[in-house]
Specification:
This protein is of the alpha+beta class and about 325 residues long. Among the domains are: about 1-140, IHF-like DNA-binding proteins (HU Protein, Chain A, Irregular); about 245-325, Alpha-Beta Plaits. About 35% of the residues lie in helices and about 20% in strands. It has helices at about 5-15, 60-70, 75-95, 155-185, 220-230, 230-235, 260-275, 300-310; strands at about 15-20, 25-30, 35, 40-45, 45-50, 100, 105-110, 115-120, 135, 250-260, 280-285, 285-295, 320. The longest helix is centred in the middle third of the chain and has 30 residues, at about 155-185. It is elongated. The two termini are about 30 Å apart. About 15% of the residues are buried.
Length: about 325
């Protein structure tokens, strides 16, 4: 039975895996790194593991996974896990090193505390699968030099003086030309007097125009409205389509603690309330998990978890539970 393999597989999809009476594996994240000097290098985002010896309370995740993997009853899987933990502690007491491939090495120090050396070459972030650090050539932007160009530089000095002289004259005549263009357009023909003394203005005959009687169109309009409008449709109420509002499930929960006893869960909720943190309980695998927030996006959950860890050292044991939504 390879329990250490199950532990590693769980860490790909969970941010905390607790081994009862031994300790807990907690995920930490490192963003992508771009270095331009001395060598241009790109390093993808990483997920690395730290070990917390104080996380020893069983949250049921590892036991349930063992039972599901080997088709065992819950109590049988729990006994197998206890045998595994006793075996590891026995090897460490003898001064041996216990290794989980891809995670790191475990040893005992002089105070009989567990020392964990993580394997920094293994990236457990599933989103970075297949990505490796690589070097690249930095693109250099071309340097643009501004050069002023004088369009009169190649003209003969005498000709240049003539051009400037003609330009000044043109500028002086410009208002006069504009005025001559404007005046004919503003004078109406009726304002001009004729120079022909014998010309007589023609007087047009005024004719009476008979206005035909216009029949009232009010009745025609009403009849047209009645013909074009279906009264039954106009008076019928059509209920608008109601769009169904989809609720996004909260797949990632920030867990503050996991208990089998409801009284212990209530104590933790009360303690968190004193810190102005509202917590709730979710029941899963016969365990009561106290969660303080839920997200549909994993990155948002990780940002919130990191904010809480930075706020208080006692929140370092908080972790993210991935809830499987059918």
């Amino acid at each position: 039975m390879q329990i250490e393999v199950i532990i590693k597989e769980l860490l790909y999809t969970h941010d905390c895996v607790i081994v009862p009476c031994f300790g807990g594996f907690v995920s930490n994240y490192k963003t992508a790194i771009v270095k331009n000097s001395p060598i241009a290098t790109f390093t993808p985002p990483q997920k690395f593991i730290v070990f917390n010896q104080s996380l020893i309370l069983d949250d049921g995740l590892l036991v349930s996974s063992i039972a599901r993997e080997y088709s065992l009853e819950y109590n049988e899987a729990k006994k197998e896990l206890e045998v595994f933990v006793d075996s590891v502690k026995s090897r460490l007491t003898k001064g041996e090193t216990f290794t989980i491939s891809g995670l790191g090495n475990f040893t005992f120090n002089q105070e009989k505390n567990i020392i964990f050396e993580p394997n920094i070459t293994e990236n457990l972030l599933a989103d970075s699968f297949g990505f490796e650090p690589f070097q690249y050539n930095v693109l250099k932007n071309p340097v643009l030099v501004r050069k002023e160009y004088n369009k009169f530089s190649d003209i003969d000095p005498i000709r240049k003086a003539q051009i400037i002289k003609y330009a000044k004259r043109s500028l002086a005549l410009a208002p006069v030309i504009a005025l001559l263009i404007y005046l004919p357009n503003t004078i109406e023909p009726s304002q001009l007097s004729s120079l022909n003394l014998f010309k007589k203005d023609k007087i047009e005959d005024v004719k009476n125009i008979e206005v035909a009687n216009v029949a009232p169109v009010e009745n025609e309009i009403i009849r047209a409205i009645d013909e074009k409008t279906n009264k039954e449709i106009a008076l019928k109420y059509i209920e608008p389509n109601k769009q169904k509002i989809s609720v996004t499930p909260l797949s990632y929960l920030i867990i503050a603690g996991s208990f089998k006893n409801e009284e212990n869960a209530a104590k933790l909720i009360k303690k968190l309330a004193s810190d102005n943190i509202e917590a709730q309980i979710i029941r899963n695998d016969d365990f009561l998990r106290v969660y303080i927030d839920g997200f549909s996006d994993k990155i948002m959950a990780e940002d919130k978890l990191q904010t809480l860890k930075n706020k208080k050292p006692e929140y370092a044991g908080f972790w993210i539970y991935t809830q499987i939504i059918d």
